[in-house]
Write a structure and sequence with these properties.
The protein is mainly alpha-helical and 236 residues long. 60% of the residues lie in helices and 0% in strands.
Length: 236
């Protein structure tokens, strides 16, 4: 949920300097990631659809983002790398748990995330392919992707003890396979850690805290939600 909120905000900030076509794609990604975060929050025990302001205005101590957001790099190659890893990671996670989900709320949330993030994965993969094809930008993207993958080893393990103490080892091992099939060079995946790492609270990272604080004071975000049904159709 926290990663989706932060990726929604990062996509929103990237629109400011993007051309019309890219800006439209980022707008859809931003809106749908926030919708997916709301659905997950509801499935976790919230009453109804949580208010976007309350969801995104929490203080840093209430956030447990993955290492994807423990960086100050907001360059386009870094954003593409984060979007690619997060979307692939969520698709793997949703698919691995859909068959076992019995609660209607969780099945609805997982199905929505699986459809929406599959679509986003395709969008980020196209952007990654463009960067790889540009001879002058390929080294920059390789560096950003390898660093992103090295930081994101906590995608499948919670920051606190309990049911997720060990983490989802199966999903952790599946992620690099999915990324390799997307066309990324195999050598770029060697920074993925062997075992899920524990997440840190956002207060342990200046970069994460700064991003959350920036998000909390930005008055033009989050935008007012469209009708829930319409937003779901965009992500399907």
């Amino acid at each position: 949920m926290d990663d989706l909120c932060l990726m929604s905000f990062v996509a929103r900030t990237q629109q400011d300097e993007a051309g019309p076509v890219r800006a439209r794609g980022l707008d859809v990604i931003s809106r749908n990631n926030l919708l997916h975060a709301q659905e997950i929050a509801t499935a976790c025990g919230g009453s109804g659809m949580p208010d976007r302001i309350r969801l995104t205005r929490r203080p840093p101590r209430e956030w447990w983002p993955s290492g994807l957001f423990h960086t100050t790099d907001q360059s386009w190659p870094s954003v593409v790398a984060r979007g690619l890893v997060l979307a692939a990671g969520l698709v793997v996670l949703a698919r691995s748990h859909l068959a076992d989900a019995t609660a209607p709320g969780w099945r609805t949330a997982l199905a929505l995330v699986e459809r929406g993030q599959s679509r986003q994965f395709g969008q980020w993969r196209m952007s990654a392919g463009q960067l790889i094809a540009e001879q002058d930008r390929r080294p920059e993207f390789e560096q950003a992707f390898r660093a992103t993958l090295a930081r994101s080893g906590d995608l499948y393990r919670a920051g606190e003890g309990g049911a997720c103490e060990v983490g989802d080892v199966q999903a952790h091992y599946a992620l690099p396979v999915v990324l390799r099939r997307s066309g990324l060079p195999r050598s770029w995946l060697d920074t993925w850690c062997d075992y899920p790492r524990r997440r840190r609270n956002a207060t342990a990272s200046r970069a994460a805290t700064r991003l959350i604080d920036e998000m909390r004071v930005r008055r033009d975000w989050p935008q007012r939600a469209r009708a829930r049904r319409a937003a779901k159709e965009v992500g399907s």
